[in-house]
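Appendix B, example 12.
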Amino acid sequence: MNFTIIDYLKLLNEKYTIENALYILTEIDEDELEKGQYLSTPESITRVCIEIIKAERLDRKGRQSRLVDRRSYIASLLVNEAYNTLTYTGKLLNQYHGTILHHVKRVKNLEKDKQYIENVKDLNDFFNKNKSKI
């Protein structure tokens, strides 16, 4: 039987979910959840970010503010939390490394912007909620 991360969070009665980023939990996810290591290692953060990129198609071209904000948030996570290079992060998001650097700097400048906060609220809640449990 296949479970999504949404199913798992519902079982835990968690109110924070990424509704657009449904992905099948792998054995690696399940092992990390059991050990309390989910989203606590760079590899785990990178793997989950890759699944979110695929599910939300953040690697496609587009300049809609919601798409750009979410892409910036994920790029910042991949560089600052998972310690990936700008080049590797750029390959994941189908962008140049210079654009990734711009995304990372942009997040620092937008931390208090209401529209940005609204656009990434579910991502921010998900990553911070799961980190705090560890």
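The radius of gyration is 14 Å. The chain has one domain: 5-132.
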